[in-house]
């Protein structure tokens, strides 16, 4: 009874802050449920004025101060321009323009007619949060028009050409996976991320790896630049469970690029706990299947074999295999003339490798093929086959050609 003055006060809140605080404190109230859904801020003024009206009518109150609005931001009207043809294109049927206008007006939208084919739509404040693009207006019209009135027609089948390089990669992946499966290898699938310790154990440099800023574990912190650390770990984790382990993985590695996203390169990683010659045979089988000369230049992607703690590993660039792939193997007609076979032993050194010997030998027009006879320590014995398709050659001619191979 002694109350003389009443302050009318109403507020609007940040819905994200209300939601976050309510969930953190575990307090759910009717006010929180309403405010976290971002109610129309323009409704605050209407509610405020209605409250004053009721107070004057019921309690004979008098307004003794102006209305103060301390809203930090005043939202402008949201305007969307849309062409009538978009409704037909998205919905699938032509709806009369008058029907479209009627639906939008009845939903509270304002319309300004720009021209015969386009309109400017004024979005009401209570729809400002969910009407953002012209397609939202199309959805509103379709909803009110009635989905049941839209005929069910299958869309025409459209074939989209896939990028040729990606198609080649998938074809080669399946081809190589099938081959390695028949050779008795098991495929493994590892994370694209590895730990710092795996990088260091693999003899790689940390600075060459891209680090994730939001990694959920130290075990998956760096994008790998090689498949071998993961394959080595696979062998180590399974040691003692099986005597012979032969694993492979075909996946991307990530190479750093300055001021850009990393290069994503497909690699084939192979690891085995058998021996060097077993892994070499697997590599040769891959090259033979793809009709690639195993003793090609480095540009052909010849891999290195790494040994660590009895685990033999190699990594092959898939794109280089694709670039050197021959769909049909090269055939040579049978030679009708005699073949002269000569053996020669070479002492291997960094400057004298099998690839170098082979390259020098095949400069001869008489040489048909080379075979490995024996390999002992650093001594390599090769058998050379000399012949011509036009005539018989003498042994002296063959020896002269062989003498040039040093």
UniProtKB/TrEMBL annotation:
Name of the featured protein: phenylalanine--tRNA ligase
Keyword Cytoplasm: no
Keywords: Aminoacyl-tRNA synthetase, ATP-binding, Ligase, Magnesium, Metal-binding, Nucleotide-binding, Protein biosynthesis
Stored PROSITE patterns: B5
Molecular function via GO: ATP binding; magnesium ion binding; phenylalanine-tRNA ligase activity; RNA binding
Single GO BP term: phenylalanyl-tRNA aminoacylation
Cofactor(s) needed for function: Mg(2+)
Claim: Isomerase is one of the keywords in the record: no
Lineage top rank: taxon: Bacteria
Organism: Candidatus Roizmanbacteria bacterium CG22_combo_CG10-13_8_21_14_all_35_9
Enzyme Commission number(s) of this protein: 6.1.1.20
Residues covered by the B5 domain: 75-152
GO CC terms of this entry: phenylalanine-tRNA ligase complex
């Amino acid at each position: 009874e002694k109350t003389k003055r009443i302050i009318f006060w109403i507020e609007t809140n940040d819905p994200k802050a209300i939601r976050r605080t309510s969930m953190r404190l575990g307090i759910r109230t009717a006010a929180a449920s309403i405010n976290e859904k971002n109610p129309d801020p323009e409704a605050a003024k209407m509610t405020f004025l209605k409250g004053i009206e009721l107070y004057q009518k019921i309690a004979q109150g008098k307004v003794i101060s102006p209305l103060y609005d301390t809203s930090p931001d005043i939202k402008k009207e949201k305007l969307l321009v849309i062409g009538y043809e978009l409704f037909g294109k998205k919905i699938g049927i032509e709806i009369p323009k008058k029907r479209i206008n009627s639906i939008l007006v009845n939903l509270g939208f304002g319309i300004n007619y720009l021209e015969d084919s386009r309109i400017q739509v004024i979005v009401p404040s209570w729809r400002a949060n969910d009407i953002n693009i012209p397609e939202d207006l199309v959805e509103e019209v379709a909803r009110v028009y009635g989905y049941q009135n839209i005929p069910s027609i299958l869309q025409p089948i459209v074939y989209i050409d896939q990028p040729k390089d990606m198609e080649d990669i998938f074809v080669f992946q399946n081809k190589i996976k099938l081959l390695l499966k028949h050779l008795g290898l098991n495929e493994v699938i590892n994370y694209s991320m590895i730990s710092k310790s795996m990088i260091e154990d693999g003899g790689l440099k940390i600075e060459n790896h891209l680090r994730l800023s939001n990694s959920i574990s130290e075990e998956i912190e760096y994008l790998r630049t090689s498949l071998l650390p993961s394959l080595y770990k696979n062998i180590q984790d399974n040691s003692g469970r099986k005597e012979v382990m032969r694993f492979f993985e075909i996946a991307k590695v990530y190479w750093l690029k300055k001021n850009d996203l990393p290069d994503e390169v497909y690699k084939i990683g192979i690891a085995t706990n058998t021996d060097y010659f077993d892994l070499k045979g697997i590599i040769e089988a891959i090259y033979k299947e793809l009709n690639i000369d195993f003793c090609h230049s480095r540009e052909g992607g010849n891999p290195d074999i790494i040994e660590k703690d009895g685990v033999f590993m190699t990594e092959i660039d898939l794109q280089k295999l694709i670039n050197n792939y021959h769909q049909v193997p090269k055939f040579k007609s049978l030679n009708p003339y005699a073949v002269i076979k000569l053996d020669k032993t070479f002492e291997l050194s960094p400057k004298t490798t099998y690839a170098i010997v082979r390259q020098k030998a095949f400069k001869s027009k008489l040489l048909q093929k080379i075979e490995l006879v024996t390999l002992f320590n650093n001594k390599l014995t090769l058998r050379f086959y000399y012949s011509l398709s036009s005539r018989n050659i003498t042994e002296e001619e063959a020896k002269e050609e062989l003498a040039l191979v040093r």
